[in-house]
Design goal:
5-stranded parallel beta sheet, Rossmann fold, homohexamer, globular, about 210 residues, alpha/beta, 8 helices
C-alpha cells in the first residue's frame, strides 16, 4: 500500500461492512454509523439527491453539512442557509428519503482552513465517515483522524450548482436539474430575479 | 387593547386557529405553519420536550434554534452545538415526537442584539410564529414584524438547564430531569467530568 | 402593476409628495423625512454632490452612509472612513449644502449580505426612503420593508470614483472631478502617492 | 515637571491659545482645531451637552465619537448607534449648538485596547486635542502622540447615563436629566419598556 | 487504571524516558521532543521560570505559548503580547536558560473552546507533550490526542501573576516576584502607572 | 531633500551607525537595536536567509514577523504559522545564524490596513528599524513614526516563495531554493502533495 491515505479508505469500507453484516465480523449489531456529506448546496440539486441516497445505502444516518452558512445574496452564494435547508429538505422528500435519518446542519465558514475541521466537528453531531472527492477536504479530515471515502459520482457534467445559478441568472431552463418541490420553492422566492440582480450590480454604489 | 404588543399575540392565535380550522375562517387549507422555539439547550431537558410537544400541537413544524452555537466547554455553555443537536434529537424521539416535523438548527451568536434577529432569519428556514417568554426576544422579533406567542410553561422550577449543569458539576442526580436516551448520551460523553473540570479551573494557567 | 417592486417606488413618491404639500394630502405637516444615500465614496466626487443636492430637494435630511468603513489603503478602498467624511463634508460645503441637514455615518461591512441591512439600520438614525440604482441594494431594502427610489443620475460616465482612483494612481488630472476643497484636501494627504504605492506592491513581502 | 504627561496638557493648552489669539503667538490664523469627545452616550444627557459646549468654546469643531457602536439592547448599551446619534443631535440643537461644527461618528469596539486608538483614528476625521478624564484613554492617546486635556466636569453626580438607565428601568423620573427633545425621542421609542425588558430576561431561554 | 486519562500521563512519561535513555528502550536516539507550556504570562514570573527549567530538564525544547495574545491594557491582561515576549525572554536569560531551546509564540484567543486546541496547533510548531494543571486544558488536549503531564508546581502561593498585578496596582513590592531584568523592563514601561490607571477607570466615559 | 520620506532613511542609518560606533557619536553604548523583517514566508527560502543575515549585520536582534499567521492550506498560504516558524528556524540554523538573536513572531492579519501597524506593534517586542521594499508597508510604518530602511535584495529573480510553491505543486525541483534542513522538513510534511491537492479542488463540493 504505497499511499498512506488508502488505509483510511479501507477502514471506512471495513466499518461499513461490519455495520451491515455484524455477525460476519464477529460482533453483534450495537452501533449506528453516520456519514458526513459536505457542500455549499447553492442550490441542492438532483445530483446531490442521488449522492445522498447512495450514502444512505451505506450508513444509518447522513449529516448534510451546509458550508459557508453565513453567506447569501452573492453570485456564488445566492441563498441563505435557511433557504438551503428548505431546498434540501424538499428535495429529499421528493426523492423518497426518510427525513428522520437526515441531519441538516448549517456550518459557518471560519476563514482559516486548518481550523475548519474543528468547526465542522463542533457544529455537527458525531459522524464516522466523511464522503468527499475534494483532495483538500480529504487531507484535512484524514489529518484529523477521520475515515474518508470518495463521494459517489452522479452525472456531474449535467448536475452542477454553478450551471443552475448561471441558468437562473439568464432565465434559462434550470428546473429540470432540481427536484419538483425544490423548483416550486425556488420560484416562490423568485430565484431568477435574485440571481440576475446579484449578477449585474452597478459599480459606483455600495454593493453590500 | 392597551398594550400594542397584544395585537401580535392575537394575530398569532388567529393564524393558528385559521390553520387548524380553515373552513371556519373562510379558506381552504393550503398552507403550513412553523413555530420557532429558541434556546441554548444546555442541555435540552424534559421541560423543553414538553414545550416542544405543546408547540407541535399548534403548528405543523417546529424550528428548534440552538443559540450561542459556537460556544462550548464553558460553565454556562458546556456542550457543543453538535452535542446539543444529538441530545435534542434523542429527547424528542424518547417523547414520541416525529423528527420529520422538527428542524434543529444551530445559530451562532453575533454579539450585537439588534442584528441577532436577522441572523436567526438567515440560518433558519422560514417560520411564522415565535414562541418566547423572554421580553427582549419578544421585543426584537415584534420589531422585526413577527408574530410572537408566550412559550408554554412546564414546571420551570423543576426543569432547568442551569440546575442540571449544577447537579452534573456536583455529581448529584440530574438524570431524572432529562429523557432516558439523553441521560445515556450525557453519560457516554462523561458530562459530569466535563462540568466539574470546567467549573474549577486553576487560575494562573491559560483557560482557553 | 406587473412588477411588485413598483409599489415601493410609488409609496416613496407619495411620501415625498405628502411631505411637500401636506394640505393637499389632507394632513398638516408634522413630520420630517430622511433619505438614505449609500456609497463607499472612494472618494466623494461632483457626481455624488449633485445626487445629494437632488435628494435634499425631495427630503428634509440626508443620511450619507459610508460603506465598507473599516477598509482603507487598498486599491479599491484607499481612504479611511475619517478621510471620506472629511472629503464629503468639504464637497457639500463647496456645493452650498447646509451641513445641518446632512448626517454622515460610517458603516462597517459585515461580510454577510442578508444581515447587512440590519447593520445599516443599527448604525444610522431612522430614515424613510432609500435612494439606490443597485438592484441588490434595492432588493435587500425592499425585503426589509423600506421604500426605495432610483438614485438620480448625474453624468455617470464622467464622474466615477474608480476613474478618479485610476487617474490618481497615474498622476493624471483628477482634480476636475472633485470639488475644490476636496481636491485641496486630497493633495494635503498626498493621495497620488498613496494610490501609486498601493497600486504596485512588491510580491514577496507582506502586504498587510 | 515631575509627571511626563503634563507636557501633553501644556501642549494642548498652547495649541488652543495659539488658535484663539494667533497674533500673540506670532502667526496668522490659518488653521482650525478639532477636539475629540469620546463616550458611549447611553444616552447623551445634559452633562454631556454642557461638556460639548465648553469644548466648543476652546476648539473650532467637535468630533463626538460614539463608542461601542455595534452594541444595543443590553443593560449597559440599550440604544443603537443610530438612536444615540439622534439623541445627541436633538440635545445639541436644544442646547443652541450649531450642528455644522459637530461631527458625530459611531466607532465600533474592537476588543483589543492597544488597537483601539488606531480604530478611532480610522473612523474619525482628523482631530487635534483629546478630551478625557479616563486614565486609560489618556494613556492610550498620549502613547499614540496625541495632546490630551481633562474633560470639563459638569455636575457628574447628578448627570449620569447609568443613573438615567436605572431610572428608565424602574420607570422613575429620568426626563429632567436629558434635554427636552431627547426626552421626547426617548419616549417615542419607548425606552422605559425597552430598559425594563432588557433588565429582567428569563434565564432558560436564549437571550441574544 | 480507573481513570482513562492516566494512560496519557503514562505515555508522556514513557516518551520522556525513551528520549532520555534510548538504548534502554531499544532504539537509538533519533528524535527530539518538545513540551508545550501554556499561559497568559501577565506577567511571566519566577514561578514560571522555575517551571520552564523543570520542563527543559525533561524535553529538548519548550514552546512557550502566550495565550489571549490580542488583549492588553485590561486589569486581567495589562501587557501586550510583545511586552510579554520581552519579559519572558529576559526572565529566561536571567535564569540561565538557553534561548535557542525556547520557542515563544503568541496565540490569539478564539472565543470558542472546542476550537481553541486547533488554534494552538496552527500557531505553534509541532509539540509532543502538553504540561498543564488546568483540568479543562488537559481535557481538551487529551481529546485532541495529545499526551498531557501535570505542570511542575513551584511555590504557587508566593508566585502568582494576579498577585503581581495587584501589587503593581497598589504600588507595593512586586519586584521580588519577577527576575531582575524583568523588573527593570517592567519599570521601564512604567507598569505601576499602567496598572493603577487601568484599575480605576471613570465610569461614564468610554473605556475602550 | 525633496522627498520627506528620505529623512526616515537617514535617521535609520544614523541610528545604526551610532549603535556600531557609539564613541564617534558622542555616547557610550547603552542600547540595543532591533530590526523588523516582515513577510508571509510561504515558505522561508535562501533569499530570506541572506536578507536576515544582512540585517543582523546592522542590528543586534531581528524580529521576524510572520504575517497572515492565521491562514494555511490555501494556494497562496499553504503552511501554518507553526510550520513557517519551524522552517525559518531550521533555515537560520543552517545559515549559521544564532537563534538567540532572532525573535520569530506570528502576526494575524486584521483585514484593515490602517490598523495593521498597531497589530504588528502589539504582537512583536519593541523594534527600532523596519526593513521593507514594499511601498505601502513603508508608508504605513513611516506614518506611524518608524524608521524604515530598504530591505537588502538577494537575487529576487531566483529566490521567490511563489516560484517555490509553483514548483512544489508541479513536483519540480524546489529543494535548491531552500536550505537543506528546510527541504528535509518540507518533505517530512509532504508539501508537494499538499500543494498539488490545494491547487486543484473540485468545484461543487465545499472547499473550506
Amino acid at each position: 500500500m504505497r499511499n498512506p491515505k488508502e488505509k483510511y479508505l479501507k477502514a471506512a469500507d471495513y466499518l461499513i461492512a461490519a455495520r451491515r453484516n455484524p455477525t460476519a465480523f464477529g460482533g453483534k449489531r450495537n452501533f449506528m454509523i453516520r456519514g458526513l456529506f459536505l457542500g455549499k448546496f447553492q442550490p441542492f440539486h438532483i445530483g446531490h439527491l442521488e449522492v445522498a441516497k447512495v450514502i444512505l445505502g451505506e450508513v444509518d444516518e447522513i449529516v448534510l453539512a451546509i458550508g459557508s452558512a453565513q453567506f447569501s445574496y452573492t453570485p456564488e452564494n445566492p441563498f441563505t442557509a435557511g433557504e438551503r435547508i428548505e431546498i434540501a429538505r424538499r428535495s429529499l422528500l421528493d426523492g423518497g428519503v426518510d427525513l428522520r435519518h437526515c441531519l441538516i446542519v448549517p456550518v459557518p465558514d471560519v476563514g482559516t482552513h486548518s481550523i475548519w475541521v474543528s468547526y465542522v466537528k463542533t457544529f455537527c453531531p458525531k459522524f464516522d465517515v466523511v464522503y468527499s472527492n475534494n483532495n483538500l477536504v480529504r487531507t484535512l479530515f484524514i489529518e484529523a483522524g477521520y475515515q474518508v471515502k470518495p463521494s459517489p459520482l452522479f452525472n456531474r457534467e449535467k448536475y452542477s450548482s454553478a450551471e443552475i445559478r448561471r441558468r437562473m441568472r439568464e432565465k434559462k431552463d434550470w428546473r429540470s436539474l432540481v427536484s419538483q418541490s425544490a423548483a416550486a420553492y425556488l420560484e416562490e422566492i423568485d430565484s431568477e430575479s435574485r440571481l440576475s440582480e446579484i449578477g449585474a450590480p452597478t459599480q459606483e454604489e455600495h454593493t453590500p
